[in-house]
């Protein structure tokens, strides 16, 4: 069963956040966080709702060896030994010059299948004065980019949620929750094959963190067909 | 300890996502004491808490690109990484924790205590934190005790039942009702403040 439609989703979010969800149930919930954007959005809502002021928790100075272990585990000494933009003088000039050369000469040659390109797949529109939003899909179908004709934020206490409606008889499927109409979003694996011509994309205005239900609960502010 | 500057922490996290080791070290110097305090509350032992801190910063380095730059509190994101790692550690049975009544009173005081003067630079987040504190303070005593012990000390349902000397089912009910009541109360506060 999809956890997003579970009657106890809010209780599970609360207990996961609290830490009383343990063992297999905790692992299943953690998996759902990766697989189901609606579950991740609902947990985010809980995290924002229960935001604790950490100033009151106190502070304990860590032992020096803990940082040394972290640097060893991550091989940070090697990372910081690499040239950085913070270096000055001729070395910095040489780095900048090399970078310019790379951009001018090498980048066109290096434009490989690992650097996905974005193509416009739909334009979402709503009642005036809502801005128009171009939706671009990456060539590997893993990311969506929203480009709004004017800046727009969801406002305090609200989020936008993007939905995919495969056809008029299908229920909307949640794609992502966000707060600005100019953004880039990961596309859940289960959604990728459904982004096809004829499907509809719609953005609704929801409570902070996304719809608490399986479908949109707030007004649809923008929509458009792929 | 001086209040952590959200903008500074956010900037360091974003530079960490860009693989700037110097920014990551600065982020550690700034936030590790708070994250270690959070870990110690949950796992109860210094050595284990330092282990949790190590794992937390390894994860932060590797997942800093997943941090949402629009998130209102970067510290809450980092604290959440630390708490989940600490809970995983105690779930594996590596930690034996004891909660004395004096610990409990400290925890309750931290949780519902009065606000420090000038402690909140950001008025909106300060108001929200006050709502949460007031709502926790307004819960029925068993619900409040259960939530505070679980959240700040990482106690499981079973450990709560042992500590509070009540049947497991009763404690589970307190936790679930406490969460539901807390959510309703905070949502009502946000609604009335909007």
Task: List strands and helices in order, with pairings.
The complex is a heterodimer of chains A (226) and B (194).
Chain A: H1 9-18, H2 23-35, H3 37-49, H4 64-74, H5 76-81, H6 89-110, E1 118-124, E2 133-138, E3 143-148, E4 158-165, E5 173-178, E6 183-186, E7 200-207, E8 220-225
Antiparallel strand pairs in A: 1-2, 2-3, 3-6, 4-5, 4-7, 7-8
Helix pairs in contact in A: 1-3, 2-3
Chain B: H1 6-17, H2 21-43, H3 46-63, H4 74-91, H5 101-112, H6 123-138, H7 141-153, H8 157-164, H9 168-193
Helix pairs in contact in B: 1-2, 2-3, 2-4, 3-4, 5-7, 6-9, 7-9, 8-9
What profile does the largest beta sheet of chain B have?
none
What is the typical, i.e. mean, pLDDT of chain B? Answer: 80
Percent of residues in β-strands of chain A:
15-25%
Number of helices of chain A: 6
Any idea what the radius of gyration of chain B is?
18 Å
Determine the fraction of residues in helical runs of chain B and give it as a percent range.
Answer: over 70%
β-strand percent of chain B reads: under 5%
Biggest interface, residues from each chain: A-B, 44 and 67 residues
Strand order of the largest sheet of chain A: 1-2-3-6
Individual helix count of chain B: 9
- Series of secondary-structure elements of chain B, N-terminal to C-terminal: HHHHHHHHH
The largest pleated sheet of chain A is described as: 4 strands, antiparallel
**Global morphology of chain B:** globular
- The topology string of helices and strands of chain A comes to HHHHHHEEEEEEEE
């Amino acid at each position: 069963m999809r956890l997003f439609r579970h009657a106890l989703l809010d209780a599970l979010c609360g207990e996961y956040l609290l830490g009383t969800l343990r063992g297999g149930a905790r692992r299943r919930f953690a998996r759902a966080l990766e697989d189901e954007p609606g579950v991740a959005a609902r947990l985010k809502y809980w995290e924002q709702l229960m935001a604790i002021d950490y100033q009151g928790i106190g502070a304990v100075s860590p032992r020096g060896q803990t940082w040394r272990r972290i640097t060893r585990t991550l091989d940070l000494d090697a990372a910081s030994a690499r040239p950085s933009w913070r270096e000055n003088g001729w070395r910095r000039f040489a780095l900048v010059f090399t970078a310019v050369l790379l951009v001018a000469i090498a980048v066109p040659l290096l434009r490989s299948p690992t650097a996905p390109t974005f193509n416009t797949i739909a334009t979402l529109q709503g009642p005036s004065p809502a801005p128009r939003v171009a939706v671009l899909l990456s060539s590997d179908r893993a990311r969506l980019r929203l480009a709004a004709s004017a800046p727009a934020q969801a406002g305090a206490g609200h989020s936008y949620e993007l939905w995919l409606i495969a056809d008029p008889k299908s229920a909307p499927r949640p794609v992502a929750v966000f707060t600005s109409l100019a953004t880039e979003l990961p596309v859940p694996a289960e959604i990728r094959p459904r982004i096809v011509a004829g499907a509809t994309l719609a953005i609704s205005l929801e409570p902070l963190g996304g719809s608490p239900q399986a479908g949109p609960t707030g007004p649809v502010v923008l929509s458009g067909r792929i | 300890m001086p209040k952590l500057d959200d903008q500074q922490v956010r900037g360091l996290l974003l530079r960490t996502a860009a693989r700037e080791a110097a920014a990551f070290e600065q982020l550690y110097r700034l936030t590790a004491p708070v994250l270690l305090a959070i870990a110690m509350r949950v796992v109860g032992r210094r050595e284990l808490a330092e282990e949790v801190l190590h794992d937390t910063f390894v994860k932060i380095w590797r997942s800093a690109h997943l941090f949402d730059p629009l998130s209102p509190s970067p510290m809450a994101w980092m604290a959440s990484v630390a708490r989940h790692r600490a809970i995983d550690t105690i779930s594996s049975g590596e930690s034996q924790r004891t909660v004395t009544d004096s610990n409990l009173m400290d925890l309750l005081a931290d949780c519902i205590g009065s606000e420090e003067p000038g402690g909140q630079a950001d008025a909106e987040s300060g108001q929200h934190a006050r709502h949460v504190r007031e709502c926790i303070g307004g819960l029925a005593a068993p619900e409040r005790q259960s939530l505070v012990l679980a959240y700040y000390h990482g106690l499981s349902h079973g450990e709560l039942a042992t500590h509070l000397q009540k049947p497991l089912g009763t404690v589970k009910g307190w936790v679930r009702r406490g969460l539901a009541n807390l959510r309703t109360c905070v949502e009502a506060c946000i609604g009335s403040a909007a």
